[in-house]
Every structure is written in C-alpha cells, then in structure tokens.
Amino acid sequence: QTSQGGGRWQSSNNGLGSAILWMTVVPSNPPRILAGTRWNLLSSIPAKKTEWDSVNHGFGDTFVLSAVADPQSTNRVFAGTWNGEIYVSVDGGSTWKLLSGALVKDSQNTSLVLMPASKSGAPTLYAGTSSGGVRVSKDGGATWSALNEGLTSLQVNRLEWAAGAIPRLLVGTGRGLFMLTADGARWERVKAVPEIEIRAIA
Length: 202
Prior knowledge:
about 200 residues; mainly beta; 4-stranded antiparallel beta sheet; about 0% helix; globular
C-alpha cells in the first residue's frame, strides 16, 4: 500500500493467505478495502492497520469472484460468487445475505457493476456470468432478468463503464466487445474490436 500518491510503497500482506483476484474500496467511515482470493474474502482498513481479516461469513462453500460498492450507501456492497449466487452486505462487508433470484445455474458471476440511483431508491445492478450472459436488477438485487439481446456469446468476462458525458456499459465476451444501447434494451458490437475473446477492459 502507499500513502504518498505512489511515491513510496510498503508491504500489506499479513493475513492474505493466497493471491488476490480483485479489490474494491467501500466508502465507509473510515474507508475499507475488500479483497477476494481463491479461498477467502478479506477486509482491511488502511487508516488503522495493514493486516487483513476474513469476512467470509455467510458464503458457505464457495468464493467471491467479483464485488461492487454502492457509492450512495456507505456500507452497502454486492458480491458475486463462483457458484452463481449474489450476496449483499449492509455493514461494509462484515456480514452477508444471499439475494434470491440471482442464480444462473452452472455459471459463475465473473463481473458486477452498479448504476447508482438518480434519487433516493435502489441502484441498478448488472451481473456478468461465465455462461449465462448478463443479468440486470433494477431494484437493488430483489429481482433479476436476462439482458442478452444482441450478444453473440453468453460467456461474459468483464463489465465496465465507458467514460463520457453519458456513461455507457461495455461487456467483454468470448466473441468480442459490446456496448449497451442508450435505452438499456440491447447490446451492439463494437466493430472496431475484432471478434476475439475479451478478458479485460480499461
């Protein structure tokens, strides 16, 4: 970790146990970092200490592949797991509750992104899966539906927002890069990118 804008770094590995697959910042007070490894979900509060604590309570026999924090709710975090389930935490990642209806059978949740609510209300969630395409929830995870029209591959490796005056959602699949239409109803292929597997978007 660094506290000098990247000018100087120090080790912060106590309690990790294995390689980190992903990290996300939870805007709690003070802010904390969640990190997913192949065997555990961990939390650290850099302002207080450099150690990592397990917060894998409630997940059962699985591990977390992706997570996203709600910027409008300082302690709400959503997490997607290896066995296709999605969980929510309302205490910054300390405890978790399974969201019913989000499961895609025989598929993993590879990526999660969130569109904050414009006013008070629930955010819109998008979940990418390894073989079931994209699923969307417009009520904060209570109900889910498929959003796959226009996709030529249901293998989703990455979801990411494209910067701009009007944010547009990108999805990297097993056969190319796609962008969600302005009305949020279907996907259009980004023709400037070859129809190859897209594993990351930056």
